[in-house]
Amino acid sequence: MKRHTLITLLSALAMASCIGHPQQAYVFAYFEGRGTDGLHLACSYDGLQWTALRHDSSFLSPCVGPDSLMRDPSIAQGPDGTFHLVWTTGWWTRSIGYASSDNLVDWSPQVALPVMEHDTATRNTWAPELFYNTSDSLFYIVWASTVRGRYADVPTSPNERGLNHRLYYTTTRNFAALAPTRLFFDPGFSVIDGAFARKDGRLWMVVKNETSVPTEKNLRITSSVDMRYGFPAEVSEPISGKAWAEGPTPIVVGDTMIIYFDKYREHSYGAIASTDGRHWTDISHRISLPRGIRHGTAFAVDRAVVDELMRRFASDAPKPAR
C-alpha cells in the first residue's frame, strides 16, 4: 500500500473511533464452540472495541433443526425497528432458523424457513445472511448450498468431498411468505459466506473462496449499485491475508469500511479496513473481541439500543462517550 493511502486510512480510523456517528453504535451477533448454546451478543461504540453482554452467555438457545444448532447468526433491523435473526440449524439440512425481537433480548418462537426443501438434491444450507434492501423494501436472505449434479465435481480435501457451493437467495416482506429460491451468485468457484455493506453509494459483498484444491480459503470482494441487480461474477484478489478466513462481516464506521473475519484455524479474529473498497490494511492489532467468538454479523444500530443493552447486561462496560 502506498504511504499516502495508509496515512489517509489511519487518519480516517482515528477520527471514526473518536467520534463515529453521534447517534450510531454497533452490535455483534455470534456463536461460540459448536453453536449448541445459541446466540451471543457484544456491543461497541467505536466499531473496534467490543464488550460481551450477559457475561458472554446465550440470549437465545436453539430449538429448531435436527442438530439443535445456532451457527452463523445474522441479524438485520427492519424499517419498523424489529430485529430479524436467521441462522444455520444443522450441517446437512435444507432449512434455516428464524426468530424476531423488538429489543435483541426477548425473542419470538423459533421457526424453520424451508428455503431449499423444494430441491431434494440439496446437501446443505449454510451461513444465511440477512439484508434489508431499502430500494424495494425487501429482506434478502442469502446462503450457500451444494446441490448435487448442478455443478461439476471439483477436487477437494477428504472432509469436503462432493461439496461445490454457490450462493442462493429468497426475498420476503414478513418472513411468513418467501419468494421462490433462486441462484444469487456464481463466481465460477465454490463460494460461501456472502455478507453486505452499503458505502459511497454502492453495495459491497464480501465472500469466501472455499476452493480447497488448490487451497484458497480467503476473502474476496465485489460491488453493485443495488441488491436487485445482483453482483458481477468477477471478484477482487484475496483481501484477507494468508490465514484461512471465513465468516466475514463488514461495517462502516465514519468513512471506513471494516471487515471482521474468523481466522478459524488460528482460533482468532482478524480485521481489515479500507476507505475505498480496493486498498486494505490489516488492523487486527486494533480490535478487541470476546474470547471464543465465532462467525457472526456486526451491524449498526441507534445508539440508544446499545446504551440500554450495556446498562442491562454489561456491568463492567465502559461508560458511553457523550
Description of the molecule:
The protein is mainly β and 322 residues long. It has one domain (3-313): 5 Propeller (Tachylectin-2, Chain A). The chain has 2 helices and 19 strands. The protein has helices at residues 3-19, 303-313; strands at 24-31, 40-44, 51-52, 71-77, 83-88, 96-101, 111-113, 126-133, 138-145, 166-172, 182-185, 191-199, 202-209, 218-224, 246-253, 256-263, 268-274, 281-282, 294-302. A hairpin with a 2-residue loop joins strand 15 (246-253) and strand 16.
SSE blueprint:
Layout: H1 3-19, E1 24-31, E2 40-44, E3 51-52, E4 71-77, E5 83-88, E6 96-101, E7 111-113, E8 126-133, E9 138-145, E10 166-172, E11 182-185, E12 191-199, E13 202-209, E14 218-224, E15 246-253, E16 256-263, E17 268-274, E18 281-282, E19 294-302, H2 303-313
Antiparallel strand pairs: 1-2, 1-19, 2-3, 4-5, 5-6, 6-7, 8-9, 9-10, 10-11, 12-13, 13-14, 15-16, 16-17, 17-18
Write a compact overview of the structure shown:
This protein is mainly beta. The protein contains 2 helices and 19 strands.
Structural features:
single chain; 322 residues; mainly beta; Tachylectin-2, Chain A; 4-stranded antiparallel sheet; 2 helices; 9% helix; disordered C terminus
Q: Give the H and E element order.
A: HEEEEEEEEEEEEEEEEEEEH
The CATH architecture classification is 5 Propeller
Indicate the mean pLDDT: 92
User: In CATH's first tier, which class applies?
Assistant: Mainly Beta
Task: Kindly report the name of the CATH homologous superfamily.
Answer: Glycosyl hydrolase domain, family 43
Number of strands: 19
Based on helices, strands and strand pairing, what is the structural class? mainly beta
Number of helices: 2
Helicity level: under 10%
